[in-house]
Amino acid sequence: MKSGFLGLVLVFMSGCVSLNSVSLTSVPLERSQKVRAEAERFIFMGFNFDNDYVNLVTTELKTQCPNGTVSGLLTKAESINYFLYIFWKSRITATGYCVPGKMASGSEPPRKRRPTDDGSDETRVTPTSLEPDIQ
Amino acid sequence: MSILCIALTSGCAVLHSVQIGEIESSTQLESVPFEIKVSQFGVDLNDVKATGRILMDKKGSDQANDVLTAIQYFQMGPHTGAGVYSISYVDHLESKVRAQCPSGRITGLMSIRETAEYPVVKGEIVKIKGFCLKSKRENL
Description:
The structure holds 2 protein chains of 2 kinds. By secondary structure, chain A is of the alpha+beta class. Chain A has a domain at 14-103. Chain A contains 3 helices and 4 strands; from the N terminus they run H-E-E-H-E-E-H. In chain A, strands 1-3-4-2 form a 4-stranded antiparallel sheet, with helices on both faces. The longest helix of chain A has 12 residues, at 2-13. By secondary structure, chain B is α+β, with helices and mostly antiparallel strands. Chain B has 2 domains: 1-42 and 82-140; 45-81. In chain B, 31% of the residues lie in helices and 40% in strands. Strand 3 (68-83) of chain A pairs antiparallel with strand 2 of chain B, so a sheet runs across the interface.
């Protein structure tokens, strides 16, 4: 009887985890300073009226890397089911590397885009300028 | 009655996926947060079937059930949320991000796919959140 009860408690307390999404950004060469942030929400019977808790991840990562760039970010979104999806948890975990001082966009002047939105810069090297001078 | 009204009118938010891009921060630059939200009306056919069973007689609900099942055969496959009639609502996200941050210095871009669940109808939502970097003397 006791062992049956203990077994039931173990079943209810251990959650089954399912992965909703994963994403990874480009991994930097310098990987000495690891950063990690997590945000989660316990949900009862599916009653969850917003997902604003995910904003904490970005804020936390920014705090951990105050003057640099967080690269190689692995973001996981997972659901942990405790019991028949009556009690479950939604969790976002982000791990990455802080590269101090590296600023990909902030230190450069703003780039001018063409209105055509082709993603290219306004100043472009023409193929003729790359050709060697033929005397 | 009031609890039922609250339950029917308040949408539960279901999170499907989150992606976070590289995050830059600097003491010399100010991060101005921005958010873009686009959504489309989705219909959950299983909810329609359940509602039909409550509101219609047995013969009518069986016929409706058959029609809805036939429609569902054309909507099979992996997906998040309920079916929508057009997915073009996400097509102009990039230009919307550019409009929010004309300088182009965007960081901490987070893409969130979520559903606001109401009975039968669903709000299929894509949210883009991020930060526009600007120097402290620069005006956006």
